[in-house]
Amino acid sequence: MKLWHLAAGAVLALINAPAAADPLPMDAPVTIGNVETVCTGIGSSKDDPRWAAYPIRVEFSNGGAQYLSGAHVKLTDKLGATLAEFDCGGAWVLFKLPKGTYAVTATINGMDLPAHSARFEPPQTGQRRVVLQFTNAQPNQ
Q1: How far is the C-alpha of 41 from the C-alpha of 60, rounded, in Å?
Q2: Is the Cβ–Cβ distance between 130 and 111 less than 8 Å?
Q3: What is the rounded CA–CA span in Å between residue 133 and residue 117?
Q4: Which of 3, 40, 94, 134 is the most exposed place for a label (fewest CB within 10 A)?
């Protein structure tokens, strides 16, 4: 009987465990819930004219203002509810979001750096840059 309880507990723990973040494909729009996002910012693909249609561009950089790639990203609404969580191999994440207040938090995979966060609202027109600068990451690393 104890074995059955242990097995049932293990199954419940797996069901209630938070899902691991999936990596996004590079340069391909993906919809997560009601948020359209793109992982990009590497090479000439960052110049794709389609990216101008995304009102939010989150950039990851080091202390020398050089792009960093390979971020674990979490997007939340103003109440702190997670809207999207994923890994991005690029240096930019683009978002199409409804009007509102949001926060983005990121860590750089493989680097022992604290998470960085920023709050933002999508602009009525144009594109807003949200820069998460990991100043403890040394330039040219």
Answers
A1: 10
A2: no
A3: 10
A4: 3
Sheet holding 116-120, edge to edge: 22-23, 82-88, 71-77, 102-108, 116-120
The Cα 65–Cα 25 span in angstroms is: 25
Q: Which residues contact 108 (CB under 8 A, 6 or more apart)?
A: 60, 68, 70, 71, 72, 134, 137
Q: CA–CA separation, 139 vs 108, rounded Å?
A: 14
**Of 84, 91, 129, the residue nearest 109 (C-alpha):** 91
**Looking at beta carbons, which pairs linking 15-23 to residues 24 or more positions away fall under 8 Å?**
21/72, 21/73, 21/85, 21/86, 21/87, 22/86, 22/87, 23/86, 23/87, 23/88, 23/89
**Partners of 74 in the beta sheet?**
85, 105
- Are 96 and 59 in contact, with CB atoms under 8 Å apart? no
What is the reported pTM?
0.82
